[in-house]
C-alpha cells in the first residue's frame, strides 16, 4: 500500500486515508458503508462535539471536531466513487461560494453594521438563492431532521421576523394554558388522535414561551432531565437506606422520598 507516514498530517491526508480505506484491499467495514448506514454516526459525533463545547473542554473539542470532519470526508468519498457524484473539492467550493454570496457586506458593497442587519440580509439572500417565493417556503425549508424542539424554535423565530408573533410573553403563556386545557380534555375523552395532536400543540406553545424569555428549549429540557436523574439517584439511595424496594413501594412512599431529594 502506497502510503507515507508523517509526523503531522493535513486535510488532504485525511482525504487520502479515506480513499485508501474504501478501495479494494482497504478496510472491509469502511468499504461497505453508505450514507444511510453512517447517518447515525454523523449525529453522534456532532453531539459529542457539542458536549465538549458545553463542558469547555477544548482538548476534547479538537478531537471531536476531527471525528465530525471524518464524517464529512466519509460521505464525500462515498459520492466521489459514483459516476455522477460529487467530491470533497466540490463540497469546499460550494460552501466558499455560499459564504461569499451571503456576506455582501464583507465581499461586496452592501452596508450591514449590526449582527441583526447581517441576519436580515442572510435570510433575504437565502430565499433568493433557494428560489423561495413565499414565506411559507422559507419556514418549510427549516430541516425536518432537526430535533423537534430546535425545529419549532427556529420556525417560530423566522415567523416572528415576519410579524407573526405575540406582543409579549403573556400572549404566549395564555396560549400555553389554552393548549394544556385542550390536552386535558382530549385525555378525559380517551381520544388517542387528539391526545397526539394536543400534546404537540402544548410542546410547540412551550417553545414559544421559551423564545420570549430567552431560554433555549433544548438546553432547558436537557437540564431538567439531568435534574431528574440526580434526584432519582437520591431517592434510590434513600430507599435503600430505609429498606424500601422501589418496584413495590407505594406512590406515597416514593413521593415522600422525592420531596426529601428536592430539599437536598
Largest sheet, if any?
none
Number of helices: 13
Tell me the radius of gyration.
25 Å
Helix content: over 70%
The topology string of helices and strands comes to HHHHHHHHHHHHH
How is this structure best described in words?
This protein is mainly α. It is 71% helix and 0% strand. Helix 1 (11-22) packs across helix 4 (58-80), helix 3 (39-54) packs antiparallel against helix 4 (58-80) and helix 10 (169-189) runs antiparallel to helix 11 (192-212).
In short:
By secondary structure, the protein is an all-alpha fold.
Set down the secondary structure blueprint.
Blueprint: H1 11-22, H2 28-31, H3 39-54, H4 58-80, H5 88-101, H6 104-107, H7 115-129, H8 135-140, H9 148-161, H10 169-189, H11 192-212, H12 217-241, H13 251-263
Q: Characteristics of this structure?
A:
264 residues, extended
